[in-house]
């Protein structure tokens, strides 16, 4: 392949870093791929993890793959490694080369790694008990980082010089890896772009209400955690991915709405003023937030509130660059502006 400025580099795409999270492995922690049989086909991207997508876009539940891009065939080169965690609100996007391509960064002497991790309910379902403690999407990221530590030397990368970087949901992920005991020692620098793990403080310890909603969206009973998870295991992955659109309504109290929003909702009789639902277009921002898992005798990704870890000065002692974009969430502001104009037109 060629970089933006015409530099040649090698691409190894679609490498499994964990076993397919299907069947009984659905809603379970990832099972690392520690051994490969025969020659690994690394010529094409793996599919994206289930998400709402056009019918012709490559999507599959068997999606835990990693891409490695390197400018060298010298396995002793020891180049710095960038491990990129894709954005998408933990419910969309992918690490595939069409959305997380290497052509800009491979102008430099770096090894770039991009990954897929489970999204939506398949990656972040949390009932708050042993049935589904939650946050397997973050565990996927940890297992991918462990894969890098074991294998990146073969691609000319230095396992002792790994920078994890991410945008939006990827940025939140980087910040959480900074305080997660599971991630300690797997990276050496962090870059967070446009997203903060402090945007919701405190974090919940379960998302049981969302598990119930997910169950009902696909026609499953919601009597208890076991019933929910066992039924969801029987549903086609595409049905779970496509059901995300059903999460687009968010409750909001009156004091959190702008005066314009309150007026519009009142005049249009969309909902009573004491119980208002706000429709954020078709983009359910923040449906699946991180959780601080309850101590159920298992290894936890987060053991306490990230803010508490920072207050104790107990975060990993690695350099961390934090930034934001110039027009942060501009698309959302534009949508709000469009909705306001629409409402005003109705008012004459």
TrEMBL record:
- For whether the record's keyword set contains Glycoprotein, the answer is yes
Name the InterPro entries on file.
AB_hydrolase_fold, CarbesteraseB, Carboxylesterase_B_AS, Carboxylesterase_B_CS, Type-B_Carboxylest/Lipase
**Keywords for this entry?**
Disulfide bond, Glycoprotein, Hydrolase, Serine esterase
**What Pfam families does the entry give?**
COesterase
Q: Highest taxon of the source?
A: Eukaryota
Instruction: Using the record for this protein, list the coiled-coil segments as residue ranges, or answer none.
Output: none
Q: Any idea where the Carboxylesterase type B domain is?
A: 3-337
The UniProt record lists the EC number as: 3.1.1.-
Q: Which family does it belong to?
A: Belongs to the type-B carboxylesterase/lipase family.
Q: What is this protein called?
A: Carboxylic ester hydrolase
Q: What organism is the protein native to? A: Chilo suppressalis
Which classification does the entry list for the species?
Eukaryota, Metazoa, Ecdysozoa, Arthropoda, Hexapoda
